[in-house]
Each structure stands twice: as structure tokens, then as C-alpha cells.
Amino acid sequence: MTSELAALNEWVHSVARLTRPDRIHWCDGSEAENQALTQLMLETGDLIELNRHSHPNCYLHRSNPSDVARVEHLTFVCSRERETAGPNNCWMAPDAAHAQMDALFDGCMVGRTLYVVPYCMGPIASPIARCGVEITDSPYVVANMRLMTRMGAAALARIEREGRFVKGLHSLGDLDPARRFIMHFPEELLIQSVGSGYGGNALLGKKCHALRIGSYQAQSEGWLAEHMLIVGIENPQGETHYIAAAFPSACGKTNLAMLIPPAAYREAGWKVWTVGDDICWMQPGPDGQLWAINPEAGFFGVAPGTSAKTNANALAMLNRDAIFTNVAVTADNQPWWEGLDQRVPAKDWQGRDYDPANGPAAHPNSRFTVSARQCPSWTERAEDAGGVPISAIVFGGRRESLIPLVFEARDWTHGVLVGAAMASETTAAATGAVGVVRRDSMAMKPFCGYNFADYFSHWLSFEKAGARLPRIFHVNWFRKDADGKFLWPGFGDNLRVLEWICNRCAGRADAVATPIGNLPDPDAINIEGLDLDAGAMHTLLHVDSAAWQAELAAIGEYFDSFGDRLPPALRGEQQRIAAALAG
Ligand code: OXD
Ligand code: MN
Q1: pLDDT single digits (tens) 305-321
Q2: Is 0.90 surpassed by the pTM of this model?
Q3: Which ligand ends up closest to the CA of 246?
């Protein structure tokens, strides 16, 4: 055995000494292994088979009703110094966190199997990709990791070659929310999670590794780990621009990544290519451009609202080989959720006979897990070891007022301010109140593994000689009129806005300079064929100076919370815009 594998072995055995499982199983990621695990979960009730004619090889998992979302107040960054974690994270001293977690892990796997899950985040041959090993006592987690990452023998071989991997220890524990903690030890490249089987808390490759630990590693290694989808927009001339876009959880990243062009665009030859729907790792290439990979291999998407109208590509990939979590089922055992269609479900997400008095049939954060390759718009470019070149970075939030449909940052520093100042109404993807506006810089508030002030400095540091950085934009699909009705149709029609963005990147579109950034000329967005209310475009592209002054003041207060660590360039930018609005 090589010394790299010996070190992994030693870690697995030390975990086993603490957690005392009945068995240890090293996952190879094979089909036979998956079938055996599925069989086991059908026997224990962890999985329920769905209609095998309409949805072959699809299963339903019903979680504990108290375990349905990420728990940000129980998620900690345990760096040696509190300041390294910053005001954007819950912090615990590493010694205290280790003591607390060791006590919770003590004997927690008695009677269970300990699964060792080697995985690679990103294409196996990619220099941008990184490996990890998750130890878990949940077969449901293993089945999800198999869809969401490159899991098994190939990842283990890369770990053996490289000798470096992120360690993740996960146990369902007793699922009591009082004993639920998601701990990150960035300096040890270690994650420990107990008491939850929910995706973002338990599939440790995703938020914990690819974002929290990943962002920490990216800072010291000169790359970016971001909460962004990656989509390719191909115009009728065959020119493709790849866009990386950050939106907070449950704000439509999956829909945007799989966008189906409006009919007139399709007929003209526009194509949309899906590389990723949630996470983007990017690094400067020798040509100075940012090159990006999707570290994931699957989608863990929000089910409610997914329909033939909003995301036909997602529906098409969900009729085989998928895991559904906390959705409802119809009388003939097909998965169902609010917004899917007009059918009435038979059982709700908790397995009760459906009764509207009990609330929605599917949990608002119910999910599907499926291999990315099943998506009709998936592109082989997602497997490119070198990644795809990014033309534009797009930030967006759910804001019913103020923020225009689209604007472009003047330059990189302004773009970093636009990302840092992002705010959005909260959603069901995390526990807590829904619909409250909160600052969510770069959509990374729940995911940045270190001090946001240092993270902003890291972003700023990409502007250097030889860099050919993407242009930065902000979009808002969620503007409402006085009656609470959405002003912009969204979904496939968002391509009309992406077209302007691509044209800006190619130097083909004009813009109007305003204090908040460059906006499209009123007729630069193609609205042909849209049934918009009179004046909608005016409202969508209007800059309300007085309201923006208040916004800039609020951004200034937010920046104050980072004290002296905030990069002065960002403060300067905020003051410059505030002065321009006042002047
Ligand atoms: C997710 C999330 O699951 O952001 O992607 O919560
Ligand atoms: Mn996400």
C-alpha cells in the first residue's frame, strides 16, 4: 500500500474506533454496489420505489420532518482565529468543536455500516478538480454522492496519486436537531457533520467541500470557488459565450442553467448548453481568461415549481434513474409537487393522505437528485479537463423593487462591489423566515468558508497585468408592479437579457452610463413577441436616484460590519457611487 492510502486507511480506522460501526464498506461506485445499496434501502424503507413504468429506477426518500433544509445557525467555521471566519460565519474554537463532535460521534455507528466514499469534485483528469473522502453511515448519502460526484475507484486512484484530499465525517446521529452540527475545520481540510441527512448538510462534497473548504483553499491557491451556475449561450452564428451566474438558493439557478430559448430564438438557431447549476470553480488560464469547471456531476434541484413551462429540460431528465426527496406522490405512485401540473396528489411528503389543510403536498424544499448527463441541454464541454472560458459573470437576487432587470458594472472593482452588495429575499432552502431581504454577497453568505472582507480582497486581486477578466452584470428577474405581479416573464425569456449580455461581451451592444452602472438602451433588449404591460420596460430599466441613495447607504452600513478588514477599494467604490447619485 502506498503511504497516501496508508494515511487514508489510518484515518478510516481511527474514525471506526470512535464511531464503532458493525461493518466498513469501501465504495467503488459500481453499478452492482448501487443495486445492492438500493435493495437494502428498499428493505429498510429509506427508499420507496416509484412507478416503474413512468419513472423506471426512480425512488422516493422521506426524510425526518425536522430535517428538510440547511441549518445555517448550526453550521460553523472552526478556524484557529475567530477573525479568519469573519462576521459572515458562526465560529467555534477548533478544540471546543472537536471535543463536542467527538462526544457526539462516540459509538454513533453501533449497529450501522460505515461507508467510505472517495470522490472527485470535477472531471477526474482536471487540474482544477480536487478530491475528498466522505465517511458516512447513511446509504442514502452514498446513493446521492454517486450521482452528485465522480465517486469510487477512479477518485481513489487520483487520491493515491496526489496524496491530498479533504476529509469529511458524517453521521445521521439520532437526527435530533438539538444534536445537529455542521463543522468545518479549514486549516485541517476537515468537515464533520452530525444529526442531519439533508443534502447541503450531509452530501459533504457539495456546500461543505466545494464551497466552504473550497473557497478557503481557493484564496490561498489563487482561484475562485463560487455558488454559480455555468451556462453556454450559442448564437445562430455558432459563437458560444459561457456565463457564470450567482443567485441565492432557490432563486432559479437550475432553470437558468437549463433554459429553453423562446420559439423565435430556437428557430433562428440559438442554443443553450448546461455545464452546471450550482457551483463553479474557476481559475486564470495562461491566456489571462478565467476557466471554469462544474465540480459536481449531478443536480440536486428544488422540485416545486419545476414544470413543462418553467423547465422542460429538468422534467425530461427526471423520468428515470433519479432520487426524489420529500415530494408528494399521485395515486399511481408518480412523483408530484406544487406547480408540476393539475393532478391531485394522493400522499403528501410525509406519507399522509393528501389534505390541503396540512399545507403543500410536497415540501417547499423537496428535491430531485439526478446525473447531469441526463439533462437534454448538457454539454460534453462539462467534461473538459481545462474547463470553459467565462465571458461574463452575472449576479442576481430576488428583489421585488429597485433593482433593474439588468445592468453592467463599469469595471472589475465596480463588479466586485455589485457582487458584494447583492441582497435577496430568503427562501425555503434554509430553515428560518422566508421572504426577508438580506445581504448575500456573491450568493455566498451561507457558503464562504472565511471572512467576507478577505474574500472581497481575493476577488479584487484577480485584476492584474495580463488578466482578461469577464465583464460583470447584475440581473433581477423578480421585479413586481404595484399589484404584486411580476413585470418580467422570466424563464426562457431571460435569454433576451443574456443576448444583450453576450452582445456587450462581444462589443456589439451600446449602453447608457448611469451612476449605478451601464444599462441597456431602451430598445437594446429584444421584446418582440412578449406580452408586456405598457411601461413595464421603463420600470424595469429605471434608476430611481433617491431609492438608490438609500440602497448605497445600506450597503455602506453593511460594509461597516467588516471593520478595518474591508478592502479600501470597495469602500471607495461605494462612496463614489453614492456621491454620483447625490450629485
Ligand atoms: C442548494 C442550496 O441546495 O443552495 O443548492 O441550498
Ligand atoms: Mn445552491
Answers
A1: 999 999 999 999 999 99
A2: yes
A3: 2
